[in-house]
Each structure stands twice: as structure tokens, then as C-alpha cells.
Specification:
Helix content is about 25%, strand content about 30%. It is α/β, with parallel strands linked by helices. Helix 2 crosses helix 4 (about 90-95). It is globular.
């Protein structure tokens, strides 16, 4: 699988403008195949989301890389990962030096993430099992929030858990789109907190299912 990681870097990340040194280094040493379901281990390094359930998936390597390198992250950054599943994105962020809280509502996945991160000696990640709707309290604000799934809306509680210069990294889907298939297209975005609202940077096209807690009550405006 080491050769597969090298191919991911040279054949996927580099041609798709993922060149951030810390991002590429972290993805080059983290065994993605350990975090995917056994049935999809052969596809761990393909340039596509990895299905986890009918309405959940892992971000593709390219989309994860594009999002992370656009965020103003450093070794002091605190990052909240929402819907982190088995912990791959949290591991990448920790390998980049960030302090990570990972929130996952599926206990089996949360337990697997805890075990994998410990086994791989990935530190600076606190895995929390709980709802993805903002009801789980955190004891500090975050410099960035990575939502590993698509959203149709960014709720107020998400805005309030960010530092004044914080940002959200996610996939934005049309609020009128009722489909929730893995292949349904949206856009990878970085939504920067700005005053009382969001300044949204569009990165590239991307596909992910919408997380139920982030379905739109009202249309999302840029």
C-alpha cells in the first residue's frame, strides 16, 4: 500500500493542485487503507469518496487535500472534525500539527477511530461520540471546522463555535436538491467567518451525501 500512497501523491494530488507541504507530507505517511471498510480497501487510494453507509462517505483524497491546504492552519490551530467516521481526516490534521476534536454519531465508527489513532500513535485527537447537531458541548472555540459530508446550510451554532477568523471546510449542495446519493454534485468550499456572516470561497466541484443535521431550513446564500 506504500506504493499506492506514492501514486496518490504523484498521480492525484499533484495534478489537482494539492501541493501544500504539510498536507502532502501527512497524507504520504498515513495509511488510508486502515480507515476504510474492508470491502473497499482495494479502493482506498482511488480519487473518489469511499462509501461507509447509504448516507455517509469518506472524502476523496484530492478534495480533502484541496480543502485542508486552503485553510489557514498551523501547529497551534484547533480543529473540529464533524462526521469524522473512522478518523482518517482527523489523523491527517493531527499529523499536520493541529489539535483536533473529532465528533462522530456512529459509535462503532467512533470506537474504531479511537482504536486506530491509538494504534498508529496519532496524538492530539480527542474522539467524541455524540450527535452532529451542535448539542454536544465543547470547552473552547475552533480555528476551523471540517465537515466530512455535504451541507445545504451552515447553522448558527457552527458560526458561534468558531474563533473570529475561523472557517468551515465542507461540500455545499443546492438546498433544492432532494437527492442524497454519493454521486450528487456540489462544490467544495471554505466559508470564512466574517462579521455576522460568511465569506465563501469556492474551491472545486465535489460529491458527497448531505449530512441530515445540515439540511437546509432556508436557502444558503453566498
Amino acid at each position: 500500500m506504500f506504493q499506492a500512497r506514492i501514486h496518490m501523491i504523484d498521480g492525484q494530488l499533484a495534478p489537482n493542485q494539492v501541493s501544500g507541504e504539510r498536507v502532502v507530507a501527512a497524507m504520504g505517511v498515513t495509511p488510508r487503507e486502515r480507515f476504510v471498510p474492508d470491502a473497499y480497501r482495494h479502493a482506498a487510494y482511488t480519487d473518489a469518496p469511499v462509501p461507509l453507509s447509504p448516507h455517509r462517505a469518506m472524502l476523496s483524497p484530492v478534495i480533502l487535500g484541496r480543502l485542508l491546504q486552503e485553510a489557514p492552519l498551523n501547529e497551534h490551530s484547533r480543529v473540529l472534525v464533524i462526521a469524522g467516521s473512522t478518523g482518517y481526516s482527523a489523523a491527517i490534521l493531527a499529523m499536520m500539527g493541529c489539535h483536533v476534536v473529532m465528533l462522530e454519531d456512529n459509535k462503532i465508527w467512533a470506537d474504531k477511530a479511537t482504536a486506530l489513532l491509538k494504534e498508529l500513535n496519532v496524538q492530539q485527537v480527542n474522539v467524541v461520540h455524540g450527535a452532529l447537531d451542535g448539542s454536544v458541548p465543547t470547552d473552547h472555540t475552533f480555528d476551523a471546522v471540517l465537515i466530512e459530508g455535504a451541507v445545504q446550510a451552515l447553522p448558527k451554532w457552527l458560526f458561534e463555535c468558531l474563533t473570529p477568523d475561523g472557517c468551515v471546510l465542507t461540500i455545499l449542495r443546492d438546498s433544492a436538491d432532494a437527492t442524497n446519493q454519493l454521486s450528487a454534485m456540489g462544490h467544495a468550499i471554505v466559508a470564512h467567518k466574517q462579521g455576522d456572516g460568511w465569506h465563501t470561497q469556492m474551491i472545486c466541484a465535489a460529491s458527497m451525501p448531505v449530512i441530515p443535521a445540515f439540511r437546509a431550513m432556508h436557502p444558503f446564500t453566498l
